[in-house]
Amino acid sequence: MSRQDELGVLRIVLEEQYERHSTQLALLDRQARRMRADGADVEAASALTAATRRALGDIARALHYLEQGHYGTCDGCHGDIPIEHLAHLPSARYCTTCQPEPHQQATHGTHTAAPAGVPLEDKWPKAGAPSWRRLHGR
Question: How many CB atoms lie within 10 A of CB 113?
């Protein structure tokens, strides 16, 4: 299978994950509203909601870079990042050889700056957000 074919399969997987996380976010939002109305502690639900939004942002950026043809290339050596690594960590910017040490990630960041039209961290998809396909006419 060629690299382009592998990236095509990964695109399908990421689009499905985007849909799944969007649904999960909508459900979490409803649950949090109910919990607040009941006076319950929403800390765990808030943490899960934040993690889901981060995942949606990572997937949206990955899909954007796939669309632009700039996805899966290591920022360090400019080689291909293994598909398995990208499938596990869609926001990967480095291959396993070039991956900065954990203490360096704080200064290098784990994400590239989001290009125009891609949700920024403070503008992650909200509950009930339209699907990736609907957003991009697919």
Answer: 8
What does the pLDDT read at residue 27? 94
Distance CA 90, CA 66 (A): 11
Whole-number pLDDT of residue 117: 45
Burial tier of 135 (Cβ tally within 10 Å: 0-12, 13-18, 19+): middle
Give the burial string for 99-108 (b: 16+ CB within 10 Å, else e): bbeeeeeeee
3-state secondary structure of 77: coil
d(CA 137, CA 120): 21
The DSSP secondary structure of 14-36, one letter per residue, reads HHHHHHHHHHHHHHHHHHHHHHH
Residues 77/97, Cβ–Cβ less than 8 Å: yes
pTM of the model: 0.70
Lowest mean pLDDT among 90-94, 111-115, 127-131: 111-115
Q: Which amino acid is at 120?
A: L
DSSP run (H or E) holding 53: helix 43-68
And the tokens for 91? 């926001």
